[in-house]
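Quick start: load a record and inspect it. Here is UDP-glucuronosyltransferase:
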Amino acid sequence: MPNPPVNYHEVLLNDKQDNKGLSFESVIVNEVSRVPFETLVSTKEGNDDCKTLMNNHEVLHMIRTQPKYSVIIVESYNSDCALALAANLSSPYIAFNPQSIHPWHFSRLGIHFNSAYVPQSLLPFGKEPWFFDRVKGFILYHVANWVYYIGSQVTDHVYLYKYLGDNLPALESIASNASLVFVNTHKSVFGGVVRADNVVDIGGIHIRPPKSIPTHIERFINEAENGVIYVNLGSTVKDFTLPSDKLTELISTFRKLQLRILWKWDGDSVENLPRNVMTMKWFPQYDILKHDNVKAFISHGGILSCTEALDAGVPVVAIPLFGEQYGNSAALVDAGIASIVTYENLKDELLLDAINEVLDPRCQQQAKLVSRMWHDRPMNALETAIYWIEYVARYNGSPNMGAPSVKVPWYQQLQLDVLAFIFIVFYIVMYAFYKVLKVCCCCCCQPEPPVEKISRERTTRRVKFE
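Running the structure step on this input writes:
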């Protein structure tokens, strides 16, 4: 960190910057194969991070000396390894999820999953899925949880025995005992799911006041009579790997627009680039989105890009590629401020329709309204995080804010034992009622013998008596 504060001490786990990025060829369009594969890749990265953490000599010294901390803040995304280290230091710890909530976080947060109305960050179905989307959501939720459990928790748990001892609790138990969980979203857009009080939204915490835009970029924006569209498909997937047919569709779309285009492009110069397009390897994204003449944002749907668009009140044309980008994009669509064009259907006519949809005045007004809702908080994201961190420090945790359901077996959460007991009691009562009713009916309905037969029997008895 440049110019760190006096009370800041940094331990670098890995000083090698080895981020080569991904290719557009890595994009998997089918959810059934994409979700398990991406979950497995994430857990593999988490395993590598766990080894890097636990092999650091300063971390090992920390385990031996057991220093005391008021609060420990740990990233919790694709591994619970660092949470185990925090628990070993016997201090209250806060988990920070840099993205939206993932399927394997639901149980530990006391969120009851139901594919009918609980959206998943890895799926594009939103809050109103149709039947077969619910079926896929139900299956993929359990598949993702199983892959994460085997690929991350079991693997890391076995590895951590070496450093934290044989009495190490299950990683899921450690994760569910976090004092708080910070999530990089906000209920104004990502809300509607019942969560415990210890789940705190801090979406937009990275955002700072906008700075002045470089002169040549600002002039390009100001001189656009019909407005500007900003295009950025992220930094993880390298732009120069975009297939030529997809690149042609983008250029064809931009050529048909009356607006100007600012396009973050990290490849070589693009041939036959329309005159209304400016490309650069880097743009000050948030500063550009805050400009009044920027009308739309073509994005991959990453969480930071989505939160910056929400903060600026700019509608989005989302082209999700990986992971939580699908769920983020679906949340923006549910809020009425985005349109989705899938990567496999990236055609100029579909992209043009999506752009015209978000340029509609109603969508523009809705984006401004949702932005006001996004900002309308008792405290901003940074103040919220500071308050709750100090809250945990003051009270040595927050034991009364977690969901009691995380410690309740699944059959009790679904009240299957209660329903079974009620069914058994009901069955016994109804069976007893049936038996009593049957006896009563038999007594009442028994036929009386004929009168002639009774008289004959009396005569016979009298003769015998005589």
